Amino acid sequence: MNTLTAYVRSGNPDLTNRQMALLLLVYLLPGPHTVRGIAQSLNVSKPVVTRALNKLGALGYLRRQRDDADRRNIFVAKTREGAEFLEGFGELIGKTGETAREHEHA
Predict the structure, then answer these.
(1) Distance between CA 89 and CA 57 in Å, rounded?
(2) How far apart are CA 81 and CA 54, in angstroms?
(3) How many CB atoms lie within 10 A of CB 55?
(4) pLDDT digit string (tens) for 13-69?
(5) How wide is the angle at C-alpha 13 spanned by C-alphas 12 and 18, nearest 5°?
(6) Phi and psi for 66 in degrees, rounded to 5?
(7) Helix H segments across the chain?
(8) Does the structure show a pLDDT above 90 at 106?
(9) How far apart are CA 14 and CA 20, in angstroms?
(10) CB under 8 Å to 70, separation ≥6 — which residues?
(11) pLDDT band per the 50, 70, 90 thresholds, residue 101
(12) Cα gap 98→104, rounded to integer Å
């Protein structure tokens, strides 16, 4: 609760659970990542992934890249902005976790 409350207060864009799951999947699991593969991993339809990618792309957190070998495939690529967002989110988790532990022992 503390982490999510701090996140809401941070002023960063609100991401849905699907958007956050997609973002974490791309950044934490080895690629290459395709829309089809992400949809299968998350057990959702390709249009659901496309809508999430539209939002994450508009924020600069991910980008689409055509597969030169097979133009029908779209790869989902990491960006510096996305990495910075997740790094900041990780720091937020660490800070709020420390605060919670301090309150437990007080």
Answers:
(1) 18
(2) 15
(3) 16
(4) 889 999 999 999 999 999 899 999 999 999 999 999 999 999 999 999 999 998 888
(5) 125
(6) -70, 140
(7) 2-9, 17-28, 35-42, 46-59, 80-105
(8) no
(9) 10
(10) none
(11) low
(12) 10
